[in-house]
Please model this.
Amino acid sequence: MTPQAALKVQIDRYRIMTREERVGTALRLHELACDMARLGIRRQHPKAVPAEVEDLLRQRLELARTL
Model:
């Protein structure tokens, strides 16, 4: 399957979802992105405690909002 065909399938699936399903999907994707960012932060700062990781994540999210 080409990337264009995969995108069409994805969009078709989103179109048949209810609003609640789309919001749920968006929230799960956001959590996945945050989890991936936390992994990256932990690799960059291996001695960081969980609170520090969360602070660094918040800083990254704030920076992303300003771009």
User: Anything to note?
Assistant: The chain has three helices and no strands. Residues 7 and 13 are 10 Å apart (CA to CA). The mean pLDDT is 96. The longest helix spans residues 19-44.
